[in-house]
Amino acid sequence: MTITPGVDIDIIAEGIIQKVQMNEGLLIPSSDIIDLIHQLKEFDLGRAMLTTGVITSSWVDYVCHNETSPTDHPLETWFLSKSPKIKAARERYYITRDALQSHLRSNMVFCVMPCGVISKVAELDYSNISNIKIIGYDNDIQGLVRAEMQMQPLVDQRKVNLLLLKKNIWLLTDCNQHDLIISNRLSVLEADPQKVLELFEKYYAALKQNGIFISSFFTPSPLHNLHASPWKNVDVNDVLTEHSIFVDIMDFQPASRPESKMITLLHKAGFEIVDIFYDTHHIYPTIVARKA
CA-based diameter of the chain, in Å? Predict the structure, then answer.
């Protein structure tokens, strides 16, 4: 995976440096952040982060399957092995995969919204599963292409029936069609709780009776509210460095919610809570709900 051909990373980096130098709300010295920018230019993941300002589904898949830098770059190794949210995202990946496995049944319709690279679905054990239909919705054509590549061996083995569709999930109109829905990214990227509620209501309508919905949420960082944050056993320097990369450099600020607010949103949409699984540091929990 590389950044888009023709992109001048030096010009992009210079623009970010100028923005950082004008920022009066930095939590670490601007010189340290500028040094991070120059280091990010030195490896593919860092260049992609500088270019897009997000971690795309392909790169999410990358960070969930790599704990060290393939090129031994020190900043990439730190990012993959010590960045609190990235560590939590990797742990959540496997927690979510296990939750999916426990709810997987024969003769079901299972929907992934957005599907992204769909690795955790491709890695499930289908040996005792038959007649399962998996539907993936996404606006990202590249993600859909990669999802198809990931799932093709299972399709060839007739383990699953696969349908991938380019679709804006915010315009979802499905009704009583799915037995299982997993959706992580949209509610994390949307800060407005009313919009998240509307999204959850769409998922509720799309599920069959007693259908299962699996999602995740970021809890509040101790940088936002030290006493209200549930984060555990994290190094403050790692938290500050991560904040500088995500917020000051990338301008990427996923929404965070305490468990109580996430539960309230799901209850308002009509769901009942089945389970909540926390990662080691209590940063990125997985929540399982049922259409009541």
Answer: 58
d(CA 112, CA 45): 25
**The architecture CATH gives domain 104-218+255-291:** 3-Layer(aba) Sandwich (3.40)
SS3 (DSSP) at 162? strand
Beta bridge partners of 127: none
Q: Helix 9-22 vs helix 44-52: angle between axes, to the nearest 10 degrees?
A: 60
pLDDT band for 58, please (50, 70, 90 cuts).
confident
Residue ranges of domains in the chain: 9-82+233-249, 104-218+255-291
DSSP 170: G
Q: Tell me how many degrees the CA angle 110-62-278 measures, rounded to the nearest 5.
A: 60
Share of the chain above pLDDT 90, in %: 86
| Spatial separation of the C-alpha atoms in residues 292 and 283, rounded to whole Å | 27
Q: pLDDT band for position 6 (50/70/90)?
A: low
pLDDT at 287 over 70: yes
Closest CA to 259 of 220, 212, 204: 220
With a CB cutoff of 8 Å and minimum separation 6, the contacts of 181 are 110, 111, 112, 113, 203, 206, 207, 211, 212, 213, 214
Burial (CB < 10 A; 0-12, 13-18, 19+), residue 283, is buried
User: Residue 226: is its pLDDT beyond 80?
Assistant: no
Q: Which residues contact 159 (CB under 8 A, 6 or more apart)?
A: 126, 129, 132
For residue 163, the cross-strand partners are: 135
How many C-beta atoms surround the C-beta of residue 111 within 10 A?
A: 26
Element (H, E) at 234: none
- In this prediction, residues 241-252 reach a mean pLDDT of 96
pLDDT range class, residue 227, cuts 50, 70, 90: confident
Quick check: helix, strand or coil at residue 20? helix
In terms of pTM, does the model score above 0.85? yes
What pLDDT shows up at residue 4?
52
